[in-house]
Structure formats: C-alpha cells, structure tokens
TrEMBL record:
Membrane topology recorded in Swiss-Prot or TrEMBL: Multi-pass membrane protein
Catalytic activity: ATP + protein L-histidine = ADP + protein N-phospho-L-histidine
Name the record gives this protein: Sensor protein CseC
Segment forming the signal sequence: none
Listed transmembrane segments: 12-32, 131-150
Domain Histidine kinase intervals: 216-418
Lineage: Bacteria, Bacillati, Actinomycetota, Actinomycetes, Kitasatosporales
InterPro entries per the UniProt record, alphabetical: Cell_env_sensor_kinase (IPR053469), HAMP_dom (IPR003660), HATPase_C_sf (IPR036890), HATPase_dom (IPR003594), His_kinase_dom (IPR005467), HisK_dim/P_dom (IPR003661), HisK_dim/P_sf (IPR036097), TCS_sensor_his_kinase (IPR050428)
Length: 430
C-alpha cells in the first residue's frame, strides 16, 4: 500500500511520542510508589520506636503492635534476631503492599508492627496513573497532529516540485521548480529544487546548442546540395544520371526536413490562421495527392487553423502510411478529428510509448527507407496548430498485446479554440 510522507512522518512522531510517554509514565509511577513506600516505612519505624519505649516503661501499647507475632515475615525476623531494628515490605496477592516494622526487646522478645498501604496512598497512585494515561494519550495525539502538519507542508512542497519537474520533462522550459514550491525555504526541498532547476537549465542550453548546430549544418548544406542537384540536371540521360538525381533530391529533402525540425524545436513558428471546412479541405488535398485513397467525411466542421501546416501534417501521415504500412489507406474526418489508417504491421512499441523520434524509423517490420523525420515534423506542426497527434495500433477486441496488429491509426485532434498570435494554445487532456 502506498502512503504519503505526511502519514509516515505522523506515524513516526506518534510512535516515538508513545514510547517516550510510556517510558516516562513507568518511571514516574515507580518513583512515586517507591517514595510512598519509603514514607510508609519511615512512619512505621517511628511508631515501632515509640512502641518500644512505651513497652519498656510499662505503659499501654498503641499503634496495633504485637509481641512475638507468629505472622512476622522470616526475613524480617532474621534481621531482628541479629539485634537490629528493621522494616520490611511484603506484597499481597492483590498487589497492595504490607508494611512491617520490628525491634528486639531487652527480654529477648520481638515487638512488631503490621500496617497496610493506606487508602489515601492507593487513591493517590490511582489518580497519578490516570493522569499519566491521559497525558500519554494527549502526547500521542499531539504528536500525530504535529506530524500531519509538518508532513503536510513537506508533502505539498514535494508534490509541487514533482509537478514542476514533470512540466519541465514535457518541454515547458520556462517552469522552475524553486518558484513552484513557493520560493526559498531553507530545507532539503530547496536543495532539490535548485538541483532540478540547474539540471533543466543545463539541459536546455545543451538542447539549444544542438539545435543551433543542426540548423547551421543543414543551412550550410543547402547551397552545395542545390548546386549538386543543378549539376545533375546537366548530365546526359541514362540510368546513372537518374540515380544521381534521385540521391541528390533525397539529400535535398533531408536537408529541408532537418531545417524544418530545427525551426520547430526553436518554438519560433507561428500559425497563419484561416477559417476552413475541414472535411472539404481534407478531401480535396488527399484527392490531389493520391486519388486512390478513400476519404470519408462523417461530420463536417468549420475550423480556424493554418491550412499550410495542416496540409503538411496530413501529407506526412499519408507518406508514413504509404511507406511503412499496407493498403488500403483510409482517411476519415469527424468534426475536428482526422484519422489516417493503414493495414500494415502497426506502429513500433517505442513510438507508441515515447512518441516520434527523429532519425528513428522503428522496428524492422516498419523501418522502410525513411529518416524518422516525417512523424517528428507532423508532431511539431501539430503543436504549432495547438492540436494533439496520437498513435495507436488496431487489434481485435480482447486480443493480447503480443498479437500482431491489423493496422495503425494516426489521429489528429484539432483544438476547439485556435492558437493565439503569440503561438500559445490551450492544453488538451491526454
């Protein structure tokens, strides 16, 4: 069972408080009992001395003393026979102690006094035990309340830190854990927040440096690749020329894709919004690209979006389905949702778990000849549109996960509210 730090800390404080309270209660109880017994023995000793003087002077005995009492304890009798005055404490079966005092007489007889623990002392001990029990319970509950209070504050700060760290992990680079937990508090959570913020800053700087390097390299490659493509056009017709032109064109496409990924990573792209009928737009664009693809408009909807970026996302999904999947490829439009399905082996598990990754095309069943940039660009353009792009595999109902998929579906969810001119967009629930 998973429990929070608040309850663990509360339980720890309550347990320590209970142990301390029990230990102190036992010490106080024993100390009070010993003190009362000592007082009772002192009183019995004083009385037996008075009784001895009265007996030796021939006066009437008092205090209930007896001469040669047969009930006198053996240990006490042994001390008296040695010529010593002594007191003795004996425990009754009911737990109430008996107080004995004895003294040897000049005629060789033994004068003894037998008293019990007074009712007043018994009442005092009961009241003391009751007070100790109430105090122990109060300490336990007070410690629990203190643990809940302290643990609650610590737990809230840690939860805020975890939420902020998750936001950083999702790419929200402007989030800082130290601010999320409520500023500077000199404890371990502040040290954790500073460490996470420093790590996020270092990671952001590294990502930004890699993005700039990638963009610079791709930009510098555009000129020689364009020259190579132009020179290939001047070659005489033939099979070698076709191969050179094909590879030069592939290199040019790769350079343009890398540049586009770098721009999307820089979060500098802004959508140019227009009002369009989504079903009509998708049907027209898909028909122009491949008339053999079936498009179904289940429910028409007017949306405000960037047509150029939407077309880029749609064409990349279609190209991915054609390259890695199997026909027939189906496109459906239902309100603000566009679905692209193929009947191939399905998306690789890494893509379903982590999303598209550049220069990774997935498993060998779906690898093809791409560079893994198509879906990365589609996901980046979807973010600019404020949309959400999801991926899943099609399996029969109730089929196990290890069963081969019957196809893959990419779903583009356009937002109800278009992105603003600042590039921000409403967050959609996963």
């Amino acid at each position: 069972m998973r429990t929070g730090i608040r309850w663990k800390l509360s339980a720890a404080i309550a347990m320590v408080g209970a142990l301390v309270a029990v230990a102190l209660s036992l010490v106080v109880h024993n100390a009070a009992r010993v003190s009362m017994l000592d007082n009772s023995r002192d009183l019995a000793d004083e009385r037996i001395q008075v009784a001895q003087r009265m007996y030796e002077s021939g006066r009437t005995q008092s205090f209930g003393v007896k001469v040669d009492d047969p009930m006198i304890p053996g240990d006490l009798l042994a001390k008296v026979e040695q010529g010593r005055r002594a007191t003795y404490v004996a425990d009754r079966p009911n737990g109430v102690p008996d107080i004995w005092a004895a003294v040897p007489l000049k005629d060789g007889r033994v004068l003894s006094l037998h008293t019990g623990f007074t009712d007043r002392n018994t009442d005092v001990m009961k009241d003391l035990d009751q007070a100790l029990i109430i105090g122990s319970i109060a300490v336990v509950f007070g410690g629990s309340a203190l643990g809940v209070l302290i643990g609650g504050q610590l737990s809230r700060r840690l939860r805020k830190a975890a939420a902020a760290a998750n936001q950083v992990a999702k790419g929200e680079t402007d989030v800082r854990v130290r601010e999320a937990i409520g500023g500077v508090v000199r404890d371990e959570t502040d040290d954790l927040a500073r460490a996470v913020d420093a790590m996020a800053d270092a990671l952001q700087q590294r990502i930004e440096a890699e993005r700039r390097v990638t963009a610079d390299i791709a930009h510098e490659l555009r000129t020689p690749v364009t020259g190579l493509l132009t020179a290939a056009e001047l070659l005489p017709p033939g099979r070698p020329t076709e191969l050179v032109r094909d590879r030069a064109q592939a290199m040019r496409t790769l350079v343009e894709d890398v540049l586009e990924v770098a721009r999307l990573d820089g979060a500098s792209e802004r959508a140019e919004l227009q009002d369009i009928l989504l079903g009509e737009f998708v049907a027209r664009r898909v028909a122009a690209k491949d008339p053999d693809i079936d498009v179904r408009v289940i429910h028409e909807s007017e949306v405000t979006t960037d047509p150029r970026r939407l077309e880029r996302v749609l064409f990349n999904l279609l190209a991915n389905a054609a390259r890695h999947g199997k026909p027939p490829i189906e496109v459906s439009v239902e309100g603000r949702v566009i679905r692209v399905r193929d009947h191939g082996p399905g998306f690789p598990e890494e893509l379903l778990a982590d999303g598209p990754s550049r220069f990774r095309t997935g498993s060998t069943d779906r690898a093809g000849h791409g560079h893994g940039l198509g879906l990365t660009i589609a996901a980046g353009q979807a973010r600019v549109l404020g949309a959400r792009l999801t991926f899943r595999n099609i399996r029969p109902a109730g089929a196990p996960e290890n069963m081969p998929a019957e196809g893959a579906v990419a779903v583009l969810w356009l937002p109800e509210h278009a992105p603003t001119n600042t590039g921000s967009f409403p967050l959609l629930p996963a």
